[in-house]
Amino acid sequence: MNTPKISFLNYAAEESIFRNDLVVVKGVVAQEEEGEEDDTVESNSNKNNWAQDLRIIHNSTETIPFKAENTAFIFATRLSPGMNEIKFVGRNNICWKAMSLTYEPLQMVNHDDSYSVVPLLMLCRDDNRPDNVIRDITQKIELIMKVMQTFFEEKLYEHGLHKKSFKLKRVEILHSELQIKTTNEMSAEQLWEQLACQIKSSRELWSPRHKFVAFTTAHCKLNLQTQGQSPDKLACGGGGLALLGFDTFEVWPKTSSSLLDSIYDPLLLDDAQLLETGLGLGLSEPRTRGGLLCATLGALAHELGHIFDLGHSEAGLMGKDFLKFRQFFSPVTQLKINCFGCSNMSVGRRDSRKINIRKKSDITLTHSSAIILFYHRWFAHNNAESEHKESLTFSKNRVTTSLGILVAAEIRDPLTGLVYKTFELGNENQELILSKRDVLIQHGEKARLFVEASNGDSLSMEIFRDNLPNLFTNVK
Predict the structure, then answer these.
(1) Are both 285 and 396 inside the same structural domain?
(2) If both were cysteines, with which of 160, 164, 472, 474 could 433 make a disulfide (CB 3.0 to 4.6 Å apart)?
(3) Name one Pfam family in it (predicted).
């Protein structure tokens, strides 16, 4: 057997990483035939032979577990500060490929120096779990939030943009005066309001540069009439707070080495186990431990999208497809596509070489959503130095920016947040002029306008159709 050829799909063989020490690496194995052009192995009998021989070694000591399917593979690992050497070793210790990932963690000088996300574990007043159990839960939250960082990096990468994500603070314990029974009788929206008030009144936690993600060990109210809830009914997010109002910590992994096993855990859950989580019987198939974890991760990613100002979409992550989060961890067939970059903007665009990228999955972002995240203040690399300035103004039917350029604009349903119109912006656009046709009659006489500028400043407001002229939309 000739030495297989390994290609990486979402990382380079040598790459520097700044924000997150968790990497989820995807790649493809091809069999190199003598005298012939390299090709991906197609024989059914040989497709997975390479996986039986392969070991992935991190810094010469740790063996990284991976999942293989046909000619594709995926693995997850935590990086150490500095250079990390990852070798792909076959039979007789022959090295098939090596990659070098350099982790250079960004420093945060003090508690309030940067725009960042703070995970919170809410404990009810009568929650008597021992300290070691609480430590385990906080460790799980830390890992899952790192998964979220990596996930959003890849969503931007899929749109031809440089990898960027939010900064993450350590997990904080939020002691609530609520009792477990009281929490069980509250809706997710009611608990969200309660937590938002408590956070804002806390000198230790509150900062306008912080967004918060709250997890609770006491689930919100079950809808027994519908025999349970889907994860999106017990989660909500907006403004500066996202909340998961159900407890699925039992199926969460604590380490990167157990992440894939947890995602694909086939153990079936019975009705009693589902009721204990707070979801009741509302979990769609597969009703397994892995399925429950993936539904949780999808709900979390969806609500994070909302606190980063994303609206709803018909499909994808910000639609109902967030429940298909397992696709992010699937070693599936890959496609070569051209990098299309960021509309007409050169800022943040990768080079135009052909890149390997996954087939379009059901948990993709719209291009407009990707642009919003890329320029979002919480995704800026040096956001500790970024000052919030009111650079966007709206007058009659005109949006202008005094700093940078306009990069994204959307018209959304004011009730559901569904995006029904986006504008192609970029280049040197500093002005957007709206007309009546931008507020469609079937969506009512008013709409919500969201606009973002390249400095991270954003504007969100209701606009009324009758106040707009009968003109064509104009972008300058």
Answers:
(1) no
(2) 474
(3) Metallopep
Q: Give, for 433, the enclosing helix (H) or strand (E).
A: strand 431-433
Residues 456, 230: Cα–Cα separation, whole Å: 33
Residue 312 backbone dihedrals phi, psi, to 5 degrees: -80, 155
Q: Which residue has the tokens 């050829």?
A: 5
155 and 87 share one domain: no
Beta bridge partners of 15: 101
Structural domain boundaries enclosing 14: 4-103
Q: Which of 139, 163, 141 is nearest to 150 (CA)?
A: 163
pLDDT digits (tens, 9 = 90+) for 163-189: 999 999 999 999 999 999 999 899 899
Residue whose pair of structure tokens reads 């792909």 in the numeric block:
88
CB 468 within 8 A of CB 436: yes
Q: How far apart are CA 276 and CA 268, in angstroms?
A: 15
Q: Which residue has the tokens 């397992």?
A: 326
Q: Are residues 218 and 249 in the same domain?
A: yes
35 and 75 both lie in a single domain: yes
- Do the Cβ atoms of 300 and 235 come closer than 8 Å? yes
Number of domains making up the chain: 3
- The residues that bridge with 268 in the sheet, in sequence order, are 288
The 10 Å Cβ neighbour count of residue 338 is 11
> Residue 194, Cβ neighbours under 10 Å: how many?
18
Residue 243 shares a structural domain with residue 210: yes
Residue for token digits 């090295």? 95
Which pLDDT tens digit goes with each residue over 361-384? 578 999 999 999 999 999 987 655
Decide if 419 contacts 312 (C-beta within 8 A): yes
Burial of 223 (0-12, 13-18, 19+ CB in 10 A): middle
Helix (H) or strand (E) holding 43: none
| Same-domain check for residues 180 and 238 | yes
Residue that is written with structure tokens 């190199």 in the block: 32
Q: Are residues 31 and 179 part of one domain? A: no
Map tokens 């086939």 to a residue.
266
Q: Are residues 393 and 469 in the same domain?
A: yes
pTM: 0.89
